[in-house]
Amino acid sequence: MLAYISRRILYAIPILIGVNLLTFALYFLVNSPDDMARMHLGTKHVTQQGIDKWKNERGYDKPLFYNAKQDSYKVLTDTIFYEKSVKLFVFDFGNADDGRNIGYDIGQRMWPSLAYAVPVFILGMIVTISFALLLIFFRATYVDLAGVILCVVMMSISAVIYIIAGQYLVGKVLLLVPISGYEPGITAYKFLILPILIGIIGGLGASARWYRTIFLEEINRDYVRTARAKGLSEIRVLFSHVLKNAMIPILTGAVVAIPLLFMGSLLMESFFGIPGLGSYTIDAIRSQDFAIVRAMVFLGSVLYIIGLVLTDISYTLVDPRVRLN
Q: What φ, ψ does residue 9 adopt, rounded to 5°?
C-alpha cells in the first residue's frame, strides 16, 4: 500500500515540474517582460524609460536564468526564473504587480470559495447519484424516459441562464435572498444559498445522465443477477452492490471537482460578488496582473495533481486489486 502511494506521488512530481516550466515559458519566453509592460501601460505613447521603470518595480529587469553580474549562488537565485518560478514550489507567491502579497490574498479569499464549493460538491454528489439511482430503479419506464429528457434539456441550458433566472426569480421577484454580495461569518449563508442551489441544479443534468450510464453498465452484470437470486430487494441491490461497484468511475469524475473546492467557481463568484479565488483570478485577468495569474495557474495544477493522487489512493479502498498494479 505504501509503495503504491509512493509511486503515485513520484509520478506527480515531474508533471508539476513540467507545468511550472511550461507556464514560465509562456509568460517569460513567448511573452517577454517588455510585452507585459506594454500591455499593462498601453501600447500608445509608451517610452522605453517607462517600460524599464515598470520592469524594475516588479523585478522583471533581471536575467531569465543566469545573472553574470552576481557572485556565488546568486548567479542562479538572482534571476527571474528563481524568483518567479522556483519559489512557487515552496508556495512563495511573492507580490502582485500592484504590490499586494499574493499569499495573503489567497489565505483570505480561500474561505469564501470553500464556503460555496464544498456544499455544491457534497450536496451535488448526493442529489445527482440519488436521481440517477431513481432512474435506474424505474429503468425502461416512462419515469426513466422523462428523467433522461429532463437531463438532456438541463444539459442544453447555459450556466449563465441558470444564474440570471435564479437571480431574477429568487432574488428580485420573491425577494428571498440577496442577489449578490457577501458577508463573512454566520450571516454568509444568506448570500450563499442561491449560488449553491444554482450550482447543484446547473450540474444535475450532465452528472445524473453520466451516473445513469455507469449504473446501467453495472445493473446487468452477473453479481447483480446473483444478488437478486438470493432474494435481495431491488433497493438493496442498487445501494449495496451496484453503487459500491460503480465507485471507481464515480471517484474518477469527482477528481475534476477537487481543484474547484479550493479555487471556487469563476463564473458564480463573478456574478454573485463572492470575494473568492475565482473572482480573484478574473479580476487579475482583467487588470492584466500577470503575477496573480501565474500563481493561480500553478496552484490549480498542484490541487489537480493532489486530487489525482487522492483518487488513486481511494481506488485501493474500493477495489484492493488496484494496489497490485
A: -70, -40
> CA-CA distance, 138 to 321, in Å (whole number)?
32
On whether residue 122 sits in a domain, the answer given is yes
Q: Mark 110-123 as b/e (b = at least 16 C-beta within 10 Å).
A: bebbbbbbebbbee
The arithmetic mean of pLDDT across residues 247-255, rounded, is 76
Q: Can you give the CATH number for the domain in which 295 is found?
A: 1.10.3720
Q: Is 95 helix (H, G, I), strand (E, B) or coil?
A: strand
Residue whose entry in the numeric block shows the C-alpha cell 419515469: 143
Phi, psi of 101 (to 5 degrees): -80, 115
Half-sphere exposure of 110 (CA within 13 A, CB side): 13
Domain of residue 301, residue span: 102-218+257-324
Question: Is there a domain that residue 113 lies in?
Answer: yes
Residue 126 counted as domain residue:
yes
Mean pLDDT, rounded, of the chain: 83
Rounded CA-CA distance 87/77 in Å is 10
DSSP 175-243: --S-SS---SSGGGHHHHHHHHHHHHHHHHHHHHHHHHHHHHHHHTSHHHHHHHHTT--HHHHIIIIIH
What pTM does this model have? 0.80
Q: How confident is the model at residue 234 (pLDDT cuts 50, 70, 90)?
A: confident
Point out the least confidently predicted range of 24-33, 99-108, 173-182: 24-33
Domain count, the chain: 1
